[in-house]
Amino acid sequence: MDSKKTGVLAILGASLMWAIEPVCAKLAYANSDFLQTSAIRAIVVALTALLYVLFTGKGNLKVTKEQLPKLVYIAIAGTIFADLLYFFALTKIAVINAVLIGHMQPIFIILIGFFILKEDKLTKFDYAGILIMITAGVLVTTKTPANLSNMKFGTMGDIYVLLATVAWSTTAIVMRKYLTQLNAGVITFYRYTIASAIFIAYLLLTSSLVLANIYQVLVGIVVGAGTIMYYEGLKRIKAAQVSALELSTPFFAVVFAFLILRELVTVMQISGILLLVVGVFFLSRKEEAYF
Hints:
Layout: H1 3-28, H2 34-55, H3 67-89, H4 95-102, H5 105-115, H6 124-142, H7 145-149, H8 156-178, H9 184-205, H10 214-236, H11 239-245, H12 248-261, H13 267-283
């Protein structure tokens, strides 16, 4: 199988895992909290990544002095901050809200590239895509025409996911810029091992490091598999293609949330999902930049 097909399949597999993750997390909350679940998840992801590194015949976990600070940043920003905030938000909002807002990363990747890294130029397609994706987010978070007319633009839980999304975007940029030469399992292993050490230290101090249910383990396995597939896909296909393929996640999430959690989706939220697809289409277009 050629590199592009492998990349496409890897991102589709990751998208399926991202849709399963919040459902498993919500099921885990039946007799545990978001912090405990996040800690068990991080430990299981690290072990999953270690097994992947060993079984792919690349058991070398060595990284350079230049790569280590980037891995530490990804661990702190991506797992300790963003993942934890996302899991906390899941205690307050529906799965579809969390998943769709989380998939607005392309907006922030483009904006960070333009305003902070000074590497990318914005085109009229970028502006159109950003506007459409923001509109999609408003439709999903407001849910109904009545909420929209009353200017009820979601909840604090939605804002928490938005903050997590910004942090995830920065880690994606760091990975693409500095770590593409590393094995996907190695990146995942360091990201979650560093985070696990912090979680374990905190939970040991509070005497709350316990395995409460099987869903905490399942969410770790799901995230471990998804993260590895995501990093493998990033190495093989373009960022715009990754963003487009990841849009299968909200559709998977709607199905799982309805079948397992009985969460209902409104017409406006479905419209938001469709607009998200249109937004990423525009962001993936290329044309001479205006600035």
